[in-house]
Specification:
- InterPro entries: Poly_export, Poly_export_N, Polysacc_export_EpsE, SLBB_dom, Soluble_ligand-bd.
- This is Polysaccharide export protein EpsE.
- Belongs to the BexD/CtrA/VexA family.
- It is a multi-pass membrane protein.
- It is a single chain.
- The protein is α+β, with helices and mostly antiparallel strands.
- It has three domains: 98 residues, wza like domain (wza like fold); 81 residues, Roll (Outer membrane lipoprotein wza fold like); 71 residues, Outer membrane lipoprotein wza domain like (Outer membrane lipoprotein wza fold like).
- The protein starts with a helix and ends in a 5-residue tail after the last strand.
Length: 264
C-alpha cells in the first residue's frame, strides 16, 4: 500500500512537496512560490516564484500571468495556454502553493519588534503575528486594532487582547490577510502627585481604583492625608474637573491624583 501511494505521488510530481494550507479564494501575488504539475506530463512539473509583474516562467509557454488569480484561476489559465498552443490535448493542471511571500502584514505601534512581516501561511491568525513581532511592549495597551479590506470593503476591528489570551476567547483571534495593519497604541496612564512616596506617571491598569493608584505610588508619606484627596479630570470639552473620590472609585486615562499634606 505504501509503495502504491508513493507511486501516485511521483506520478503527479508531488513527492517531498508540502503545500501551504490556503483558502480557495486566496489570490496569488508577487513572491509566492508555487509548484505546477500536469497529469501524465512529468517534464512540465515546475516550481516557480511569482515575479513582481505577477508572472511565472513555464515550460513551452514562456511567461504566464498568474498574479491576481486564485489557485483555480491560475490552473485554468495554464491549462488553457497549453491547450491553445497545441502542447497538451486535455491538460489537467494542479497548482500547489508552497510558500506565501507576496502577502505582508504591517505591525505598528507598541510592539517589541514592529515592522512588515510576510504571511507564511494563509490561515495565520492575530496571535501568531503578535508572537512573530515579539509581543506587545510594556508601554503598549491591551487593545489591538486590525484594519484592512474584506470582501472589497474597508475592515476595522478592535481586539481585546486580555479577553483573547487570558480568557481564551478564540473568536477574537481573527485570521489575517495580506495588506492588513495591526496597531497597538501606548497604554493609558495616570499621574499621582503630592504626599506619596513615588510621585509621577504610571500605567493605568484596567478598572484600576484610587486605592490601587496610591499603592502604585508607594503609599502616602507620613505627612499625607486621605481627607484632602482629589482627582483632576478633563471632561470632553477639555475643562478640568476636581473630584473628591472614594478609594473604590475607578480612574480614567490621564487622571491626576493629588494627595494633600495633613494640617495636623
Amino acid at each position: 500500500m505504501k509503495r502504491f501511494i508513493a507511486a501516485v505521488m511521483l506520478l503527479f510530481g508531488m513527492a517531498n512537496v508540502f503545500a501551504v494550507e490556503t483558502p480557495t479564494d486566496y489570490v496569488l501575488g508577487p513572491g509566492d512560490v508555487i509548484r505546477v504539475s500536469v497529469f501524465q506530463n512529468p517534464d512540465l512539473t515546475t516550481e516557480a516564484r511569482v515575479s513582481e509583474s505577477g508572472s511565472i516562467s513555464f515550460p513551452l509557454l514562456g511567461s504566464v500571468a498568474v498574479g491576481g488569480k486564485t489557485q483555480a484561476g491560475a490552473e485554468g489559465a495554464i491549462a488553457k495556454a497549453l491547450r491553445d498552443g497545441g502542447f497538451v490535448l486535455k491538460p489537467q493542471v494542479t497548482l500547489l502553493l508552497t510558500q506565501i511571500r507576496g502577502s505582508q502584514v504591517a505591525v505598528l505601534g507598541q510592539f517589541n519588534r514592529p515592522g512588515r512581516y510576510p504571511l507564511e501561511t494563509a490561515n495565520l491568525r492575530l496571535s501568531d503575528m503578535m508572537a512573530t513581532a515579539g509581543g506587545i511592549a510594556q508601554t503598549g495597551g491591551d487593545t489591538v486594532v486590525v484594519s484592512g479590506v474584506r470582501d472589497g470593503k474597508q475592515f476595522k476591528k478592535e481586539v481585546d487582547v486580555t479577553g483573547m489570551l487570558r480568557k481564551g476567547d478564540a473568536s477574537l483571534d481573527i485570521p489575517l490577510q495580506g495588506g492588513d495593519t495591526i496597531f497597538v497604541d501606548r497604554s493609558p496612564v495616570f499621574y499621582i502627585y503630592g504626599e506619596v512616596q513615588r510621585p509621577g506617571s504610571f500605567r493605568l491598569e484596567r478598572d484600576m481604583s484610587v486605592m490601587q493608584a496610591l499603592a502604585s505610588g508607594g503609599g502616602m508619606t507620613l505627612r499625607g492625608t486621605l481627607r484632602g484627596l482629589e482627582v483632576h479630570r478633563r471632561d470632553p470639552n477639555g475643562k478640568v474637573q476636581v473630584i473628591k473620590p472614594t478609594l473604590a472609585d475607578v480612574l480614567q486615562p490621564d487622571d491626576i491624583v493629588l494627595v494633600k499634606e495633613s494640617l495636623f
